[in-house]
């Protein structure tokens, strides 16, 4: 199994001091910056775009940036995010007219490609694309907002996807997003996840390092 990656969602960071807050969470031991893009169309909220991603790079953030696109349409934003310094670009298959084309577009721009599954999105979307995926992201809340509770049936879905990844033989990360906390990250890892998004659990705490250390301690059990 690959090393575990902790990816704080900057949706819960201080947007007025985003560069500094992102640098602080990385200095506290985070591996990846999770970057939530919402368009008030695919999801009922509005956040940040490529200019903010580029601003983080210009500020000196060198860690991987994991762009989670909750937008429709998808394709037009892919080149812009690649140009802005995205490392991973993941999208929701329901939001793309041509899933295979979107995956190829992401990879042709030199980024790692991911597909995101809402709590009720069927795993059949994986059927013909496993060879093109670097990440499978399971949403453990309905997308749109931070601070929601983890939906328990995600654990079952994680186990199913872990099995599909292992059987495929491909090197694919299994990421989980929504309601991840110190007290459930161990169960989530046991179900097969190896990349953990956590927004409110980290950014709403007074000491980022303390939370990340506690998460790593749970992962090491
Ligand atoms: C929700 C976003 C998440 C969110 C997670 O649509 O995709 O990344 O920020 O926040 P928490 O960890 O607070 O559930
Ligand atoms: Zn997200």
Automatic annotation (TrEMBL):
Q: Which reaction does it catalyse?
A: D-ribulose 5-phosphate = D-xylulose 5-phosphate
Tell me the enzyme class.
isomerase
Question: Matching Gene3D superfamilies, A to Z?
Answer: Aldolase class I (3.20.20.70)
Q: Which UniProt keywords apply?
A: Carbohydrate metabolism, Cobalt, Isomerase, Manganese, Metal-binding, Zinc
Does the keyword Zinc belong to this entry? yes
Q: Which GO terms describe its molecular function?
A: D-ribulose-phosphate 3-epimerase activity; metal ion binding
Pfam families tied to this protein: Ribul_P_3_epim (PF00834)
- Which PROSITE patterns does this entry report, sorted A to Z? RIBUL_P_3_EPIMER_1, RIBUL_P_3_EPIMER_2
Q: Where does a divalent metal cation bind?
A: 34, 36, 68, 177
- Which note does the record give on the cofactor? Binds 1 divalent metal cation per subunit.
Pathway it works in:
Carbohydrate degradation
Please give the cofactor(s) recorded in the UniProt entry for this protein.
Mn(2+); Fe(2+); Co(2+); Zn(2+)
Top-rank lineage group of the source organism = Bacteria
Q: Name the InterPro entries for this protein.
A: Aldolase_TIM (IPR013785), Ribul_P_3_epim (IPR026019), Ribul_P_3_epim-like (IPR000056), RibuloseP-bd_barrel (IPR011060)
In short, the EC number is 5.1.3.1
Residues at which substrate binds: 9, 68, 144-147, 177-179, 199-200
Family that this chain belongs to: Belongs to the ribulose-phosphate 3-epimerase family.
Q: Report the HAMAP family cross-referenced here.
A: RPE
Which PANTHER family does UniProt cross-reference here?
A: RIBULOSE-5-PHOSPHATE-3-EPIMERASE
Name the chain's protein: Ribulose-phosphate 3-epimerase
Q: Which gene encodes it?
A: rpe
């Amino acid at each position: 199994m690959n090393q575990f990656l902790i990816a704080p969602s900057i949706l819960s960071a201080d947007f007025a001091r985003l560069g500094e807050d992102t640098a602080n969470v990385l200095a506290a031991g985070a591996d990846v910056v999770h970057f939530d893009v919402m368009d008030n169309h695919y999801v009922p909220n509005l956040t940040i775009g490529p200019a903010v991603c580029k601003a983080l790079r210009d500020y000196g953030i060198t860690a991987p940036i994991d762009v989670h696109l909750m937008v429709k349409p998808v394709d037009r934003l892919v080149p812009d995010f690649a140009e802005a310094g995205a490392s991973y670009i993941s999208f929701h298959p329901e939001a793309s007219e041509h899933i295979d084309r979107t995956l190829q577009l992401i990879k042709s721009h030199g980024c790692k490609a991911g597909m995101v599954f809402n709590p009720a999105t069927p795993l059949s979307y994986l059927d013909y694309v496993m060879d093109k995926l670097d990440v499978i992201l399971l949403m453990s809340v309905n997308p749109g907002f931070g601070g929601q509770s983890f939906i328990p049936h995600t654990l079952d879905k994680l186990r199913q996807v872990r099995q599909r990844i292992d059987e495929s033989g491909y090197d694919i990360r299994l990421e989980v997003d929504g309601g991840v906390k110190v007290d459930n990250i161990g169960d989530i890892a046991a179900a097969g996840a190896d990349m953990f998004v956590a927004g409110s659990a980290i950014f709403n705490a007074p000491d980022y390092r303390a939370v990340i250390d506690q998460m790593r301690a749970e992962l090491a059990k």
